[in-house]
Amino acid sequence: MAADTRINALSQLLDLERMARRAEDPQALRYVMVNETGSLVPCRQAAFWEAASGRVVALSGVSLPERNAPFVEWLERLMVELHRVAAEESVKDEMSPKAITAEDMPDDVARSWASWLPAHLLSIPIVAPGGELTGILVLARATPFAAHEPSLAAFLSEAYGHALHALRPKNRPTLSIASVKEFLRKDWKRTRWIAGGLLFVALFPVRMSALAPAEVSARNPWVVRAPIDGVVRSVDVSPNGDVKKGQRIVSMDRTTLENALAVTRQGRMVAEAEYRRAAQQAVFSRDNMSEMSILRVKVSRLRAEEEYAAAQLSRTVIAAEKSGIAVYGNQDDWNGRPVRTGERILSITDPGQAKLNIWLGVNDAISLEPGADVVLFLSTNPIWPVHCTLEYDSYDPEVRPDGSMVYNLEAKFRDGGRLPRIGLKGTAKVYGRHVAMSYYLLRRPLAAIRQWLGV
């Protein structure tokens, strides 16, 4: 029976060593330490304290210890005492697992021991291959630890220490002032060439540039707006369709205006009949002269209303004032849609007259002048750039619908090339003046530092 127990303990020790070697990172290894060590040395609670950070970084049954929890704070005070004891033993080269009780601790720690831990504790120093103490693993339970259990824990602590040391970040060579001085002293000629090359690169002239979203839009479009309050009966041209001057493009519903014109015409005819009757009666009686004056004014008012209703009815048909292409959305969206006077319905643009609208972000703004080069990369054809010339650069930024602050730029397309279709979008690269390479590279970092310092 004793042989079976020893074989079982050896098997569990080998399993724990294999799990430690297979751990992918320190966090996975700490999980094995606090949750799997109980299979070799039975315990109710386990915790691991890291010497480098001075914190409890792993607890059994908990994915991540709460830093400000009362139990963790008390446990860290306990770990400080255990670390002090282990450090004293390291001087004597006697650092090994040790059974601890509340009587072995100072009063401020022992006073709260019963509230947080069982009566018996096994402190296991985790030592790196070079002898450095990397942390302390503690196992707690209500019964005393057997004489052979600290020995098993000692073998396991060496495996854990080796695995923790292997998973630490590798030290990288650092550039120090002394190493630079040594390099300069050994090869002065090469240093001069390197310094000259760096100076040449720093002073090499390059053009400032910035990227910004852009869209091809019409130049001087004729905007078709609703002439009256009413309902759009139909839009008589298709989107992006050709429009000729004088062609009917929008028809408004005429029912209400035709009824109003008919009622006004009938009222005018009745008033004229009443006026003629009063004029005939005025021949025989002068008492009707005053009534004639009233009826004359009434007839004039009704004629003016009739003319206004006829004029409004004539405005229900909108004809094109120029030839071009109709630019608007879906045709069915406008049929039967109520509109107010002045509301935009569509626009007619000349495909031979186009411009480029650019929205340059405030953080990307550079010094620009009219005539600066602009290169447009369309989303539909990003391989072939379109060359433009800057015409306008807004002085004050404006807020776009998405909430960003931008400067509005306008550019014209250079002659000799085919103009892109109106409505296409892409990215524009705007070029500024020539500056040194060092300024080009350090402009953004310097701006960020100024904003951070407030100067």
TrEMBL record:
Predominant localisation class:
other
Coiled-coil annotation: which residues? none
Q: What InterPro entries does its record include?
A: UPF0194_transport
- Compartments it resides in: Cell envelope
Provide this UniProt record's keywords sorted from A to Z: Coiled coil
Domain of life the protein comes from: Bacteria
- Bilayer-spanning residue ranges: none
The protein's name is HlyD family efflux transporter periplasmic adaptor subunit
Organism this protein belongs to = Chlorobium phaeovibrioides
Print the organism lineage: Bacteria, Pseudomonadati, Chlorobiota, Chlorobiia, Chlorobiales
